[in-house]
Amino acid sequence: MIYLNNFIGYLSTVLIEKRGEVFLEHQRPSGRCQAEVGVMNLPRKVANTPATNYGCHVKENHSMRCIDYLLDMVLPGFLVPGNRILGKLTHLFNLVLNSVMEPILRLNYDLDLKQISTAINAARSIANPYVDHRVPNGISFWKIAHYTNDYLENIKIDFGVNGKIRFYFAAANSVVPTHVDNGTQCAINFILSEDAAPVTYDGVDYLYKQALLNTSIPHGVVNGPVERILLKISIFDESYESLAARIKYKL
User: Which of 46, 24, 45, 42 is nearest to 34 (CA)?
Assistant: First the structure.
């Protein structure tokens, strides 16, 4: 228990120092950071917008919230006698990972546009409203097609993943509600339409064309005036953190 307490004390110190770095590195020229006046009051922002425009990256605000949670809610629990230490350490490890990792990892894979165009047309012809146990009546504006071919299967081989290939068609001006993917740990996504809306995690918008996404945490899409076409490789047997560490074609 002495060694555990020493470890927790050390981790607390590291987190406090990290929180200070996050705050100080993203101060405004005027000396005040938007995080100082309350994260919850921040307007929605695009996550890859330069920090100078807003005083703080939204990512750092999210990190500060995670660090505060670790310091105030999680670490003190380790010092209560009788706790299941291994389970709490696992929980703490996952929280630390989530506090420093973006929920998406942008990729740069060379798609054959002629092959993709053919696949889109074939998928659209068999697309149906999305249905699962949570929405048994289906979502009419969000269609899914379970379509694949040899070219698409080779993309999985290139990335070295197991998974299922699907196409999604979200109607213009539709809202895909905040959700966690059904049984999916993560996914490799390719946006196939122009001017597509970003994905939103915890009020933060992430623009991308190709990316590995953490689909095990809540996310959604507020679509714009054009149809949003998505090619998705859903991965069920590997976590986002594990695949992000080894995935090819990182941007």
Answer: 42
pLDDT at site 111: 98
pLDDT at residue 172 in the model:
96
Q: Are residues 128 and 20 in the same domain?
A: no
User: Which pLDDT value is given to residue 101?
Assistant: 79
Residue 22 shares a structural domain with residue 111? no
Q: Do both 228 and 117 map to the same domain?
A: yes
* Domain membership of residue 237 as a residue range: 106-246
The residue among 68, 100, 132 that closes a domain is 100
Task: Please tell me whether residue 87 adopts helix, strand or coil conformation.
Answer: helix
Question: What is the distance between the alpha carbons of residues 54 and 33, in angstroms, rounded to a whole number?
Answer: 9
Rounded CA separation 53/113 (Å): 35
Residue type, 123: A
How confident is the model over 154-186, as pLDDT tens digits? 999 999 999 999 999 999 999 999 999 988 999
pLDDT below 70 — which residues of the chain? 1-100
Domain end point (choices 51, 69, 100)? 100
Q: How many domains does the chain divide into?
A: 2
CATH code at position 118: 2.60.120.620
Same domain, 17 and 128: no
Instruction: Tell me which DSSP letter residue 142 carries.
Output: E
User: Residue 137's pLDDT is what?
Assistant: 82
Side by side, the strands of the sheet bearing 175-179 are 45-46, 204-206, 199-201, 219-222, 175-179
- Nearest-CA neighbor of 34 among 59, 16, 71? 59
> DSSP for 91-107?
HHHHHHHHHHS-SEEEB
